[in-house]
Amino acid sequence: MDQLNNFHDAVLKELIQENADSGVSLDEAFFERMTGLLEYEGEIATSDRIGFSGQNSGKTVRIDGMGGDPRESDGVLSVIICDFYEDRDPVKINAQAAKKAFSHLINFVAASRRTAFRDELIDGSSEAGAAKAISSAWSSIVKIKLILVTNAIYSARTDAVLAGNITDIPVTYNIWDLNRFQRYETSGQTREKLEVNFKDDFGASIPALAASSTGV
Fold first, then answer.
1. Where in 67-168 does DSSP place strands (E)?
2. What is the 3-state secondary structure of 1-29?
3. How far is Cα of residue 193 from the mean position of the Cα atoms in its chain?
4. Could you give the 3-state DSSP secondary structure of residue 128?
5. Which residues pair with 170 in a beta bridge?
6. Tens-place pLDDT, residues 26-80
7. Domain boundaries in the chain?
């Protein structure tokens, strides 16, 4: 645990220094630093920062990043939610917190298929670009990868790969937490997939998956 705390302190100090030097927010600096590792690892092709949260049809919709155009990534749509904590001691999150974050992300993906939602977004904004890209590429998407990037410690049980579907498109849930980033930077050992099995933990997968199967 001491090694993990030291890693957390080192990352936080690095981000604070970058904020002082360039004015980039801690959230932005963390996103860029960690998604850069995901690119190097091959988890995503590229990382486009979005940073959007809002409401649609009574649901929270959120997306913090996108791993490029799925038509240029073998049909894989990679969308990212980033939770950064400024606490001096590492924060712990459980499966309930991860489930909530993934629900907001999948709500954005589902809403992006609807013309009314896309029309509500500010023209030229990063979120409008992401929604348009998801909608226009939908027929080419063969897999949806939901990624949670966080400097918290994911404390819940992990199991085998969880498979869900949106209109017959398989969905995976990938968690990159403080433990996993620390292992990567110290030994490069990240190949074990940290994927939560919501069905075992809660008796069901994310409810939004079934609701999002409707078309445009």
1. 76-83, 92-93, 143-150, 153-154, 164-166
2. CHHHHHHHHHHHHHHHHHHHHHCCCHHHH
3. 14
4. helix
5. 165
6. 999 999 999 999 999 889 999 999 999 999 999 999 999 999 999 999 999 999 9
7. 3-185
